[in-house]
Amino acid sequence: MLAIYAPEVRHGTASWEWEPPDLAEFARRFAAQQAQGWPWLVAELDGRIAGYAYASRYRPRIGYGWCVEDSVYVATFARGRGVGRTLLQGLIAAAAERGARQMVAVIGDSANTPSIALHRACGFVHVGTLRSIGFKAGRWLDSVLMQRALGEGAASPPGPLPG
Q1: Measuring CA to CA, which residue among 68, 56, 53 is closest to residue 115?
Q2: What's 71's domain CATH number?
């Protein structure tokens, strides 16, 4: 998974880190995310890890407890082969099963049209753009916010705090 993430950090804008984490830090992040109880999915294609996706709590305060943020990373060799859609659809279902009511996509760079299209295809709607809030690779970047209801969404009060 780090082999998929590191090139995106070095050359892309999906992550706004400037240097990829080492394996120990990546493993620490993985363990911390797993401790939250939200899903982490891995896709395999032709015997290779083709991508991964995970949900994490959107914000730490308790009132946000039923809202998750998704992260989806697809290996270069697997792009355009449905891996991202399969991962995101699985993540939506798994987060809803765990009691999440909303999923938010925080897409780095308004020029990241593949991610925007993926989220739209999976039922997300554009809810805002934060203009020029990040700086990477010598330019200012926007952050696109998209959102999708899960399960009953806001139609009823939530159940016990998930995660």
Answers
A1: 53
A2: 3.40.630.30
